[in-house]
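User: Show me a protein chain along with its predicted structure.
Assistant: Here is one chain, sequence first, then structure tokens.
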Amino acid sequence: MTTLHKFLVALMVTTIILFTSCSKDDDNNTPPNNYTTVENLLTEIDFQGYAIVTKNGNDLVRQGFGIANQTTALAQDYNLGYRIGSVSKTLTAAGIVQLKRDGLINSFNQTLDEFDPEFPNGSQISIAQLLSHQSGIPNYQLIVEEAHEQGETLDEEDIYEVIKELVTENGLDFTPGSSKQYSNSNFLIAALLIQETSQMSYHDYIQQKILTPLQMTATYKGTNIVDENTHAQGYLNGSANSTYPMPIAFGAGDFSSSPKDMETWVNAVKTSWFSEAEKAEIFTQNVPTGYTDFGLGWFTTQEGNTTMYWHGGDINGYWSMIGFIPEFDATIVLLSNQQDDTGTQRNTIIEQLLTYEFN
């Protein structure tokens, strides 16, 4: 196992498992011995879903693998819906950038107490630290999921109060800015910040400022139960597993989208959706080779002279990844309807692509 692969596995296993139930990793998902083509790689690791990988304007792969619905025999498709989990965070972060463009916030360095004077330690936590997981705010996910299992219904405002109570009772996990720890709480708070400052719902703001201008008509607020006519069914160990209480994922992982729309989004980010000045703030620079670091809603992975900007997501029945590699004008979209709790497939794909295809 290479240094890059070890770091990616450690990062994804310990910090980026989002909205999944526990299960044993598929023993068949062992890394391939020899890279040949992207299609062969995806076939060998039993990738299920739709994959797009381009390089210098050419498709390395653009096709579906497996079945989108085992009951109806629905095919994987470029226009089909898939839950994208934490990839939604790239939209939330872009929404925060849009707030600054609209003059609704002045700087990413503004602190939480400016928006909620009662937020514990709010004077220490900046918007930038939320988006780069440097806030030290503990993750709400397990507590809220347990409450849901016990019959409690919580919306985003309720969850926000849970987060505040966690910080009040237990403090922050670390001093803001002194460390980095992936926490969904950061992005639920960021989404609520969008609502408060825009006086619009979070999803309406994302729709108006991002989705509609880019004609991303198949990206929308996810539903607790997917529509099997227009959306891939999610699976875990061969059994359907796509039901999830989406309010728990508010701002952190609650969108569904299509491969087409995600390709549109990646290409927009890769080119001109962000200004050069914005990109300098959003994307982490000077990452050592073999390492991955958090930016504002995006990760940077560096391997040799190759830089990849990306984000992954996991949610019941699905995993996802979008990214781009400027040096090769590469676009990567992977939307899977087969849950992969440990991130093995995603990590294997990243390692193989950076080692053999983009180097």
